[in-house]
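Structure catalogue
Derive tokens from sequence
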Amino acid sequence: MMEPERLRVLHLMREASGGMVTHLAALTGALMEAGAEVAVAAPPEVLARLGSRLEEGDAGHAWRVPLPLYDGMRPGRDLAAAMALRRTVRRLRPHVVHAHGHKAAWASALAMTLPLGPARVVTVHNFLPSSGGGIWGVAQRRMVGWSLRRADRLIAVSETLGRFAHQLLDGSRPVTVVRNALDPRWCSRARQRQDGAARGRAMVVACVMRLHASKGVEILVDAIARLPASVQVEAWIAGDGPCRAALEARARATGAWRRVRFLGWAEPAQVWGEADVAVLPWLREGASYSALEAMASGLPVVALECPGSREVVPEGAGMVVDPSPEGLAAALERLAGDPGLRRRMGEEARRRATARTAREMALETLALYREVTGAGRTAP
């Protein structure tokens, strides 16, 4: 008797860094362990970040396919990426094309026009970029809505993003929530750490994220400037982006520069391993791998009150505070003066972050694949 054909899944992602790449690495690794064949079509930069986590060539169960899919709406370039994706589908003949993020959903919708082609799944990882209420904002929502409606199944990585996608589609389509989880190899590297402030040094609060206007890092800089000199706190800001120069100037202007270090790009595991508290001052956040990684490292997480923050920071694993420099400064002063509170929150954070596994995330995703491929659809 012939063995049943393995499920073959082609994942699609635009140029990205951070959480989406972390998600893709965890999901594809767990899918391969569960017996699926996996391919990833993405720009070379993304494939390089995935590194050795994907085998190359058709001898294994994974393929890496360079695809010129980049951010920003450029019709000519987007159409070229869609045609390249179409050729890849014809060559690899996947059962499922799984697009990650709004831009990948757009490209897959442009490419996958044949009714008997592979099943199409889209995961919503983020809100739409803030674009105001003008013509471009309306056009952007319509383009994303058109892309999502052409998927056979929609996934969101949090309840917050599930509600966002549901509203974007005027409630016309169901959205399944499949929560993020960490790669077990990452969890094994998140060592048992000792609170540095308890050893007599200043409490280190770390922030690891892209330095962008939507991330609220200026609130952390202003909060550090407001702390009394008697409160021993040092802030490490790891990451780069368009706002770095402005944030460094702000630190100098407010006097926070004496207690703020801009690290540039740094390995998150190293930063979290040396820190005592994670501060993630998003202005809105649907889901966060930075929070999961910090929590798995045993750090309490302090976030600002905003859409999604209370779902990302579980009760007892950190603090959600007023979105102002004063509110954040008060939380940091409280944590600096209470090592026992930091320890209890850190223990709960580690427990919550490691309770869900990448295997569970993969099995939930596989169940959705099986639903949409019940008729055995493949690419023509």
About this structure: Residues 207 and 332 are 13 Å apart (CA to CA). The mean pLDDT is 87. The longest strand covers residues 8-13.
